[in-house]
User: Fold this.
Amino acid sequence: MTHENDKTVATVPPGGTIGILGGGQLGRMIALSAARLGINAHIYCPDPNSPAFDVTPRKTVAAYDDLAALSDFAGAVDVVTFEFENVPAETAEFLSARTCLRPNALSLAVAQDRLREKTFFRDRAIATAPFADVSSETDLLEAVDAIGTPAILKTRRLGYDGKGQRRIETRQQAADAWQALKRQPCILEGLVNFTSEVSLVLARGVNGETAFYDLAENRHENHILRRSVVPAGLASDCTRRAREIGETLLADLDYIGVLAIEFFVVETRSGSDIPSQKLLVNEIAPRVHNSGHWTEAACPTSQFEQHVRAICGWPLGSSERYFDVRMSNLLGAEADGWADVAAQADCIPHLYGKSETRDGRKMGHITQILRNGVDIVERN
Ligand SMILES: Nc1ncnc2c1ncn2[C@@H]1O[C@H](COP(=O)(O)OP(=O)(O)O)[C@@H](O)[C@H]1O
Ligand SMILES: [Mg+2]
Assistant:
């Protein structure tokens, strides 16, 4: 049983406490935004070195299946949210029965299983890459025959930053890919020849009110987000379609909080020589998202504050954008250049306070204000 529609827990006033599962930079930034609204944040994370612990005294260091610790946590907070989508289903159910979980367990379940997620889109006539369920090597060969190559085999669960994926160029590579992913339940996706990747960050409050940020164009390197540029420069009918898809997902998931949707943009030519843009949904993240970090520098209400407002039953804030921006992640040793970054005019730094630098690890980000707008240099 969930408390999602229980209006008695609809509003968390200043002085109240939100619980956050996960202690990474996203949890840290949600906690910082909560503090600005006079709301406390209690972080629950198994790793004692989590960066979010540095910004709030309220913490639980325990495993996600520690029922005694979860029960105490539920008792100490007014509402629970999460900063990562791989919260175990049992943990979500356990917390839903004791407190208010926002977004709800359904949203988590859909987002953490690529097959369920893609099926959810297909059932709503939301276009995706061609995909097939793969539970055995025989399934995989049939899927390769149906979808063709190149294709990407992805584990249904626990993939992130491109982990848990294998590209299949020829039918002969199928068996190796299946072994490499340890014969786990997978989906096979046709490779999309996209012109760009864009994302939509949006929010829904307890009374069904919605807010949309402008679409960001995202560039990945080694499967990790390198930078986001806003505006994405899409045709207006594509932007409309992205928002329509967003509205559908928010309503059908009975969603509360910030949601991110990743899209592929493909060019289609039908008959005439004039290409038109089409959107395919890649995946959703039931949380604040790396491609929405620019909102803290460029909008009256950041995605983090918006999330806190939504889960606390507050009115949503303005998602208007003041200027064009480029957000770049500081990966690994790049964060060692913090002094240069801090000295740059029009650059807004944000560092996550992580003690250990590792290659490719997200250490911080910078948001650059593009006063003269976005040109081709910024997009590359
Ligand atoms: N079907 C596909 N066709 C083309 N590129 C893809 C496809 N699926 C994933 N990718 C590329 O890999 C990246 C990571 O894949 P994604 O499914 O978003 O997984 P993750 O959970 O790791 O973010 C995407 O942002 C995109 O660049
Ligand atoms: Mg992704």
Summary: The pocket of magnesium ion (ligand 2) is lined by residues 262, 283 (CB under 6 Å). DSSP finds twelve helices and 17 strands in the chain. Residues 15 and 238 are 42 Å apart (CA to CA). The radius of gyration is 21 Å.
